[in-house]
Amino acid sequence: MVPTTKESQRAALHKTIWQIANDLRGSVDGWDFKSYVLGMLFYRFISENLASYVNAGEHEAGNTAFDYADFSDAEAEPAMRGIVEEKGFFIFPSELFTNVRQRASQDSTNLNEVLERVFKNTEASAVGTDSEGDLKGLFDDLDVNSSKLGPTVAKRNEKLVKLLDAVGDLPLGKLGDNAIDMFGDAYEYLMGMYASNAGKSGGEYYTPQEVSELLARIAVDGKTRVNKVYDPACGSGSLLLKFAKVLGKDKVGRFIGQEINLTTYNLARINMFLHDINFDQFDIAHGDTLTDPAHWDEEPFEAIVSNPPYSIKWDGDANPLLINDERFSPAGVLAPKSKADLAFTMHMLSWLAVNGTAAIVEFPGVLYRGGAERKIRKYLIDNNYVDTVIQLPPDLFFGTTIATCIIVLKKSKADNAILFIDASAEFERQGNKNKLTEANRGKILDAFRARVDEDHVSRLVKNEAIAANDYNIAVSSYVEAEDTREEVDITALNAEIARIVARQAELRTAIDAIVADLEGAS
Fold this sequence. Notes:
nine-stranded mixed beta sheet, globular, 522 residues, alpha/beta, 44% helix, 11 strands, two-stranded antiparallel ribbon
């Protein structure tokens, strides 16, 4: 028998998910329908996760035939408080995904009511406990009574039955028995698939996996463990979760993030659960990080990664309190109201630990624009906070073809210089987007770690030289692009031209002679 590999499991899973998404979506917009597929995937996960937890305890106690799904609700209720303390939530046996699905195929007339009750009960199980904030509103976007699912209750329930069956049939196996994190991988594939088809509406909240991994590896380079990781504009949480892959889940103390969009905030929390990050290991907040940051009690952070929204509007100097905010005041100026990019940068610098690293995806304009942004760059460079600037290839992100960059910040540097890396050619075209392959990421990381000059790749520039260049930190200003045009031998080319001219003259003489002969004969 051929052993199951990560690649074969992943390929089979992705093929099935793609088919489900296309079969079930119907008239529902893909980016909207993701909430239903992901929400139902989440419902299946927490059901199996809870049942597995209870079953493991019983099996260890010698009751090897025990199955929580077969337990009665009355028998399960006494254990509710203890389970919530450990898992953060509780689901009665009758409300487990597998049992609801089984009954739905036989009687679907009130499935919408059943699911609505299950979701409310699950959320209510955490009320008054430490996990209340992590569970509250998680099912809000899985609206089982939405007209998007169908014009009538019967049509909606018909779609819900198909959704239950499709998600239930996903080849996810038993928890812990797979070569890959099946639930987490399913989530990431769905998010990437929907984001690629949704354009800007999806790309705003999802960072491609290969970019996420590069940022995480930069932020923890040289470390084997970090206490807390942070993303102030965390979207669906994919960037934060890359730390679990890069270091190992047990090597990250807590995952901290904030997201302004309510739907995406819910997706981020669901993403944490689907990657088996327990409620006490993460704190995802909802709100505007720039004007109402949620994690003053958690900072500073040893590792920060972010792909904040590009050039969005913010209060800026229209809010008189912000210029005195300790996050922004050191620069003596606020980022422009029409371009909040460097406001996010200043926020992250403020909350960065002395021994920490921040890796931030930035819009290219912040590297060279004048005005307030130049003054902020001056503050960052004069205080030696900018460690590296990396020029990325174009067309990496969903919803934009712009070539973005990565700015790496550190508060403790061994030199007074900035490393510039030109990675604009480090990509492979896959489908309709460019991708950073493992080899591409490896070359970027090698240059980042070496911190030396390499023709057409990297250059280490003293801060004084950058100041003399008006605090411009565009990579193209310091790393000369390789001239890939074919080299021409001018001497040989001139000789060839002379030969052609001489031959042309010979032919013209011969033609004239032929014409003269013809005219004489006539």
